[in-house]
Amino acid sequence: MSRILLGLLTLRILASAFPGNDPAAEMQRRIDKGQLRLAYTEPTGYLTSLLKALNIPVSSQVLVFAKNSFQLHMISPDNPRAIYFNDDAYVAYVPGSDELEIGAIDPKIGSVYYMLNQARAARPQIKKQGEVQCLVCHDSALSGDPIPRLLMLSVLPSPEGSALKAASLITNDASPMRERWGGWYVTGTHGKQRHLGNTIVRTPANAIGDMRAFVQTMDLEAGANVTDLSGRFNTRAYLTPHSDLAALMILGHQTHVHNLMALAAYKETHPGTDGKSAMEIAEQVVRAMLFADEVRLTEPVSGTTSFAKEFSAAGPRDNRGRSLRDLDLKTRLMRFPLSYLIYTKSFDEMPPQTRQFVVRRLREILTGEDTSPDFAYLTPEDRNAILEILSATKPGWTSR
Question: Is the pTM of this model over 0.85?
Answer without folding.
Answer: yes
